[in-house]
Specification:
CATH superfamily of the largest domain in chain C: Aldehyde oxidase/xanthine dehydrogenase, molybdopterin binding domain
Number of helices of chain C: 17
CATH class of the largest domain in chain C: Alpha Beta
CATH topology of the largest domain in chain C: Aldehyde Oxidoreductase, domain 4
Largest sheet of chain C: 7 strands, mixed
Largest sheet of chain B: 5 strands, antiparallel
Number of helices of chain B: 13
Strand content of chain C: 15-25%
Number of strands of chain B: 12
Oligomer: heterotrimer
CATH architecture of the largest domain in chain C: 2-Layer Sandwich
Chains: A alpha+beta, B alpha+beta, C alpha+beta
Helix content of chain B: 25-40%
Structural class of chain B: alpha+beta
């Protein structure tokens, strides 16, 4: 029988009470149990970055994080990035302006990664942005525009 | 994934006690264990989350050593000024590994314990033969396409490569793995597969890594980690080398040098023959290139991985040239 | 009245004025960056169960038995399906015309023709339960001899495909040629790998009414798949796909796993959600097959091509035909008087290969453009100059004039921007420390295809506009450019236009493939919007309530205002209010006059019968590009990094240069991966895909991609398409791999004829 466990997760500043098997990943908890489908599943094995979220302010992969491991941590997803009035975060705005995506499926992960990349101080040059964004695959090949968007947003955030 | 139980340990003692449950495994960052559970390679019945045990995530530096807590994350360790300045090979090996996201998750202790990327090992549905997963079942890699497999330290039972980067740097820097029970020299920590490839380290049941101790020296401060791979980032090594080098007072004669190889062997591989041949010598590019060939003494190719035998000495040579200030 | 007289002007590829041709940001951008774009598996469907598929672990043979008991007893499991207990469907041909054998069809195989074939499925309450139970399904196989790849000696030479191309006397010309280049060029299996894996939610709302949420490059084609399988009317199947997380050719048909989910949902009378795992995607459908091409090129000493003899082959499945048309670029790129092309397919135990970005064109150009570089080296002629000397006046295959071909402009623009004139042709002549630097170039091309389309345009009472179509946007910009087309024709701002796509209830559209969708839908929407505009003007001129009635004999609409030539006017919404109109709604199509019956329409939109590849067109229609590439090769490690790319492209008129440019760059990026990284690796013993994940099958990361400069040299080509555009989406990947291979030769003196170029090739 499934071993269910009650847990409370703080996501985008809101508490969510859940009863889940410990084997449920944070990614599946978000997508299947909380209706927060902005976080994407591209490989489910730590090889594409589409599921990037922030846990306690640091970018991590939700597919290799068990939901229960996030108990007591602050989780931020793409849905929690825009301001309360709906205004886009500067990174989101830069992604639109620079056309830093096509199909859009890797985009939430790219943006969560980019926000962290800038915060970490790893957006100092195009070369550095490329390396520190390398964990987010984009099959549409939007990389040059992603670099432009991160560079642009880094200036605005600074 | 197995329908496993989950508990959170508040102390090392509690972790060790909980780990005695049948089928229990320790969970830290999860980047290996959750992944392997999805592949059906790991089939834990219970996970013991050690990630919140206090005091194990610190990096301390004193006059003699760095002490790196087993639960410090890769990204945290990599950016510590004390590590960057005194152990550049460690910092570089961490930053060249995985991706920024994975480095934020993975811990130092877990990093040492990461499992091979052997495609046959990782595919139990497709390959029942894997001595590492299922002792005595055979080795599907032998006779298969072994492009990424080991040319050093392999046995008839297993040719899987140890995939990590950090452990290669730690091997060159002669780190010590401290557990709840004892201290283990890194050269003794990893074991070659031999007839028992399921056993990858000397850790015993009930034993848990708590800290890595790395001795400070001029050699550690003048060290580097060089990683070669097809993709520029986010890929395991085709071949890598960690080198630490200390000169005599003349600034030319090699007093001591340590060389370790990654991506080539069944465990982080110390190239003692290269070290011996260079110790006491005055450095010169051609000599280094010649001597670096000793790094692959005894290497055996399995067809598709033959390129590694050609590549590895070049990686070693370039790493030595770099820390030797020649290029 | 010309379609283009209104607010658009002729001129450069980008008009730069008026909604059409403007570099507007992506209309669906805000939704995508906020995580609010709803992809297939993200539709909220209550009570959905989770389905996980089980694939074969042998490469050939048959299923002896499936022991479902353990899985059925596993917690949360509702159903375990295999070929014996599955609902039987009506056999249907796949996209490529292959029919399954037998009177009945089940997506679960009993005869195994490839490793990783669908054999069973488990349906459970939760994803975790379904996944765990799937591992308990015990399938006993009787394995047969596997022919894993064409390298297996028993694969044999394969079967000829009747697409011979012959003109002149190539044997005689080659025998007489002063110089002959002869070589074989190979590409490995390559996988589409959209970052959104395949999957669907199947929901039977009644026994004969199915709604499917599934990523789709072809809504109507897929709806027809389901209707035919289950024997229900086409109208009873609704396929919903407002956003597609990439397709690259792989999402144009319903696949075996699609049928599995629909069957499970039907049998359980519950919605079923099925997500193909990333490793499973490598065998749930096929990517580009492995190809190999032998080329012989004869030329004079001064670089005039005399003959091309081309022999191409690709792998196909043991039980189905897929042809990667390798002679397509070879036959039209250069002026050559003597030509022969042959094509073979070699059946092996693989999933049926499929369409992957620029099928045929891409590997075809790899061979031809590598060989041209070899010829340039042999002759000591600059590779650009060699190509200029062989620029054809007309399409050498058909003799038809080009609708437009601005390749000479592309050479000039790109070589200037790149600094090509400073190139020392000697291999290894440039270096920077341990890095050998090489400069190479190659050309790419893609044909212009066309099909009919339908559209509905609505002008609403508030003056806003809606455009409706079952066409799709997989990042190609359809939402944005169709708004621009409607805005342009109607004289309103593009932001006032809402485009609804990706639902089979909307007016029909053909497959988003062959880089055809933008051009054909722009034509359909523009035509429909013009009709709506005429109706609006008629309303203004004639309606008793219109303030403009009898104030003029014609009216203009601009910036959302309808006015007389003297400037007297009012906002569109004011006119709607004044005349009491809630809506103006019109539908138009671009169907041939002869094909307007209901059956004709269905056929035209659910098969590729309506796709015009050029036979009935008096001109030869193609896009072109010229890639100039710099690589840096580490002299010790053999690692190749692309450090600079300049590409000039002639894709006709660009409806939105910002979005077109993204596709150009995307093709270039994919070409970098193709040249240096991407390789499907198959176990020769059992046909299992060893690279079935995103670590072992490497695609380019951000770090692998340098600054890319693109230059559009295209101009509106109204002989190609009604609004002057040509092929965009698939163009720029073509020619990228040979440009890199040629640059690697220039850096190292090593000619690599088998992709990808790995470090082991260069050390």
């Amino acid at each position: 029988m499934a071993t269910l466990r009650s847990m409370e997760l703080e996501i985008n500043g809101r508490q969510h009470a859940l009863t889940l098997e410990p084997r449920v990943t944070l990614l599946d908890a978000l997508r299947e149990h909380l209706g927060l489908t902005g976080t994407k599943k591209g490989c489910d094995q730590g090889q594409c970055g589409a599921c990037t979220v922030h846990v306690d302010g640091e970018r991590v992969l939700a597919c290799l994080t068990l939901a229960v491991q996030a108990e007591g941590r602050k989780v931020t997803t793409i849905e929690g990035l825009a301001q309360a009035d709906g205004a886009l975060h500067p990174v989101q705005a830069a992604f639109v302006e620079e056309d830093a995506f096509q199909c859009g499926y890797c985009t939430p992960g790219q943006i969560m990664s980019a926000v962290a990349c800038i915060r970490e101080g790893h957006a100092g040059s195009d070369e550095e942005i490329r390396e520190y964004m390398a964990g987010n695959l984009c099959r549409c090949g939007a990389y040059p525009n992603i670099v432009s968007a991160v560079r642009k947003a880094a200036k605005e955030v600074a | 994934m197995n329908d496993f139980g989950y508990s959170r340990a508040a102390s090392i003692d509690e972790a060790v006690a909980l780990a005695r449950q049948p089928g229990a495994m320790l969970l830290a960052g999860g980047t290996t264990l959750v992944d392997l559970s999805k592949c059906d390679v790991a089939r834990p019945n219970a996970l013991v989350d050690i990630s919140r045990i206090p005091g194990l995530d610190e990096v301390r530096l004193d006059e003699d050593n760095a002490a790196i807590g087993a639960l410090a994350t890769m990204s945290h360790v990599a950016v510590q000024a004390g590590i960057r300045e005194n152990f550049p090979a460690i910092s570089e090996s961490l930053l060249l590994a995985a991706s920024a996201q994975l480095r934020n998750m993975a811990t130092i202790g877990g990093n040492l314990m990461q499992r091979t990327r052997c495609v046959y090992f990782r595919d139990p549905a497709g390959y029942s033969a894997c001595n590492k997963r299922d002792p005595g079942s055979g080795c599907a890699a032998l006779g298969g396409i072994a492009h990424d497999h080991a040319v050093l330290g392999a046995s008839d039972a297993c040719i899987a490569v140890y995939p990590g980067d950090l452990a290669v740097a730690l091997t060159a820097l002669e780190a010590v793995v401290r557990t709840n029970l004892r201290e283990i020299q890194i050269r003794d920590f990893f074991v070659e597969p031999g007839d028992t490839p399921q056993r990858e380290t000397v850790l015993e049941p009930g034993e848990m890594i708590t800290e890595i101790i790395v001795p400070r020296s001029p050699l550690s401060a003048n060290s580097t980690y060089l990683k070669v791979r097809e993709r520029k980032s986010y890929e395991f090594a085709s071949a890598s080398a960690a080198v630490g080098l200390a000169f005599e007072a003349d600034g030319r004669t090699i007093r001591d040098i340590h060389v370790a190889l990654g991506g080539l062997a069944t465990k982080p591989w110390r190239a003692l023959a290269v070290e011996e041949a260079l110790r006491g010598k005055i450095i010169d590019e051609q000599a280094i290139r010649d001597v670096s060939r000793l790094a692959v003494e005894g290497a055996v190719a399995q067809g598709a991985n033959a390129y590694k035998i050609e590549l590895a000495p070049r990686v070693v040579a370039r790493a030595i040239l770099k820390v030797g200030g020649i290029q | 009245m010309s379609l283009t007289e209104l607010n658009t002007k002729r001129g450069d590829a980008t008009d730069g004025a008026g909604p059409l041709g403007n570099a507007l940001s992506r209309a669906d951008g805000p939704a995508k960056v906020k995580g609010q774009a709803t992809y297939a598996l993200e539709h909220k469907v209550d009570d959905a169960l989770h389905c996980v598929i089980v694939q074969s672990t042998v490469g050939a043979g048959r299923v002896v038995s499936v022991d479902r008991a353990a899985a059925e007893a596993s917690p949360g499991v509702h159903l375990v399906l295999d070929s014996t207990n599955s609902l039987k469907l009506r056999p249907q041909p796949d996209f490529f015309g292959n029919w399954p054998t037998g009177e009945e069809y089940t997506p679960f195989a009993s005869d195994i023709t490839h490793n990783g074939q669908l054999v069973a499925a488990v349906v459970a309450d939760t994803l975790e339960e379904a996944r765990a139970a799937a591992r308990l399904v015990r399938v006993e196989f009787e394995a047969a001899t596997v022919v894993a790849t064409r390298d297996d000696p028993s694969a044999g030479p394969g079967n000829p495909v009747p697409m011979d191309k012959d003109w002149g006397d190539p044997d005689a010309a080659l025998a007489a040629a002063e110089v002959v280049i002869e070589a074989t060029y190979e590409t490995p299996r390559e996988y589409n790998l959209p970052i959104e894996p395949h999957g669907l939610i199947a929901h039977w709302e009644a026994d004969d009414r199915l709604t499917v949420y599934e990523p789709s490059q072809w809504i109507d084609g897929m709806a027809n798949n389901y209707a035919a399988w289950f024997g229900v009317p086409f109208e009873n199947v609704r396929v919903v796909s407002p956003f597609i997380g990439g397709g690259f050719g792989s999402k144009a048909q319903a696949l075996p796993h699609s049928a599995a989910a629909a069957i499970a949902a039907r049998m359980l009378r519950r919605p079923v959600k099925l997500a193909v795992t990333r490793p499973q995607t490598f065998t749930a459908y096929g990517g580009r097959p492995a190809t190999w091409q032998q080329l012989r090129i004869g030329a004079t000493r001064d670089g005039k091509l005399l003959a091309i003899d081309h022999d191409g082959a690709n792998e196909t499945a043991a039980d189905g035909t897929f042809v990667e048309t390798l002679g397509v670029v070879t036959s039209m790129m250069y002026d050559v008087a003597n030509f022969r092309s042959r094509q073979r397919i070699v059946p092996v135990n693989t999933v049926l290969p499929g369409a992957f970005r620029a099928p045929g064109k891409n590997p075809s150009a790899f061979a031809l453009e590598s060989a041209m570089d070899e010829l340039a080296v042999e002759l000591g002629i600059d590779p650009v100059e060699l190509r200029r000397r062989n620029e054809p006046e007309v399409d050498p295959e058909t003799g038809k004039p080009w609708s437009s071909r601005r390749l000479l402009d592309a050479y000039a623009a790109a070589s200037e921007a790149f600094g090509w004139s400073r190139r020392d042709p000697r291999p290894g002549s440039m270096r920077d420390g341990h890095e050998l630097i090489g400069w190479g170039m190659a050309v790419g091309t893609h044909p212009v295809y066309s099909s009919p389309g339908e559209a509905t345009v609505r002008i609403l009472a508030d003056g806003s506009v809606e455009v409706l179509s079952s066409a799709i946007d997989m990042g190609t910009g359809t939402y944005t450019i169709l708004a621009q087309a409607a805005a342009d024709a109607l004289g309103v701002r593009a932001e006032r236009v809402t485009v609804r796509l990706g639902d089979s209830r909307l007016p029909r559209a053909p497959v988003a493939g062959g880089s055809q969708l933008a051009n054909l839908m722009m034509a359909a929407v523009h035509k429909t919007a013009l009709a709506a505009r005429d109706e609006l003007i008629a309303l203004g001129l004639n309606h008793p309530g219109s303030p403009l009635r009898d104030r003029a004999n014609t009216l203009f609409i601009s910036e959302g205002r309808i006015s007389t030539p003297r400037g007297e006017g009012l906002a569109v919404e004011e006119l709607m209010t004044a005349t009491g109109r809630e809506i103006i709604e019109l539908s138009r199509d671009t169907l041939p006059e002869a094909d307007r019956s209901s059956d004709d329409r269905l056929k035209l939109f659910t098969t590729v019968a309506g796709m015009e590849r050029g036979t009935n067109i008096p001109v030869s229609r193609h896009s072109f590009c010229a890639h100039f590439v710099e690589v840096r090769v580490d002299e010790d490690f053999g690692t190749v990094r692309v450090s600079r790319v300049v590409t000039a492209l002639d894709a006709g008129r660009l409806y939105n240069p910002k979005l077109a440019d993204s596709q150009f760059k995307g093709g270039i990026v994919m070409g970098i991966g193709m040249a240096l990284l991407e390789e499907g690796v198959t176990d020769p013993r059992n046909g299992r895909i060893l690279s079935a994940n995103l670590a072992d099958y490497r695609i380019a990361t951000n770090a692998d991609v340098p600054h890319i400069e693109t230059i559009s040299v295209g101009k509106p080509d109204y002989d190609a398409t009604p609004l002057g555009g040509k092929a965009v989406g698939e163009l720029a990947i073509v020619g990228m791999a040979p440009a890199i291979a040629n640059a690697v030769f220039h850096a190292t003196g090593k000619r690599i004829r088998r992709l990808p170029i790995r470090l082991s090739n260069l050390i």
